[in-house]
Amino acid sequence: MSGALMRLRGLIRKETLQILRDPSSIAIAFVLPAMLLLLFGYGVSLDARHVALGIVVEQPSAAAASLTAQFQQSPYFAPRDFTSVAAAQTALANEQIDGFVWLRSNFARQLHAGRDPNIGVFVDGINANNARIIENYVQQSWSDWIAAEATAAGTPEITPIAVQPRIWFNPAVSSRDYLVPGLIAVIMTLTGALLTALVIAREWERGTMEALMVTKVSMHEILASKVIPYFILGMGGMVVSVLIAVFLFDVPLQGSILVLTLAASLFMLAALGMGLLISTVAKNQFVAGQIAIITTFLPAFILSGFIFDIASMPAPIQWVTHIVAARYFVAILQTLFLAGTVWSVLLPNLFALLVMAVVFLGAARLAAHKRLD
After folding, report:
1. 199 and 335 in one domain?
2. What is the extent of the structural domain holding 108?
3. Quick one: which of 3, 268, 331, 362 has the most CB atoms within 10 Å?
């Protein structure tokens, strides 16, 4: 065995022993991803459930009672009855309800006359996304009720176009199935960067880095000894995250596990490269942690397409997203989990992750020098 391999083996053994003696690295690799995934997985949702919806019926009738029952049976609404529009408006202004439906006094009369009765729908638009969801839910409930009434009367509703929606890749339209794969990318960005940034900063604080500088080991060997053990540790955290996604949150994994492993490996190398680069700037654990959060976690959360659609962003911001590694990993994870092994989507993103891993690791090597200044 050559001297370089023996030194590298010794450095890796040193890092392994340090990991076993200091549980913080294990906590970052395993506990932090699991905790954040559980927190975000259960806490973040783009679905609206049990919406507080007011119902105003000016003139009670069998038709009004039937429509009210339609809303009550819906899993999306928690209806509340109001005697007047003014009372419903007051409740909406006081944030006691999210919207209300107004059935005017001529509702039943128009329905029996064969005319399409108009109903008033008022929604709190402060949260624009939530307002659009509620509006769609109300429209769907109204359409279902009209169709049921027409069928019961023996006069099926005649519409010029019969729409039969078919949703691919996420038939249940579950936001959790969409968010959890993206969460894995965001969380692994943070843990991957922290694993190397904090550990090397800790070496500087304890003075062990100075001891390494006076030995025969090269910077290549020092960096390799940091990347290899924490790469294995980070991939272990990735395995935990995928298992939680599949078996706890029931997110389907449609694609190839081998491709997922390849993508996770490239992404972890890029994240560790970012951590190494941060560690060359900050030799203090607190500072390194703050830089890692600001430069890796926040961009991954905001600019990766995890929640906010990149195509809807201004053009300059869209260009910025191309330097965020999580953007490519989010696209890969969502494709593998929900759509399958779609090579036309996977290959460009895998290539981008490969380039970013080489760039970040190369930049870390260029910035690292075997001297104390």
Report:
1. yes
2. 51-152
3. 268
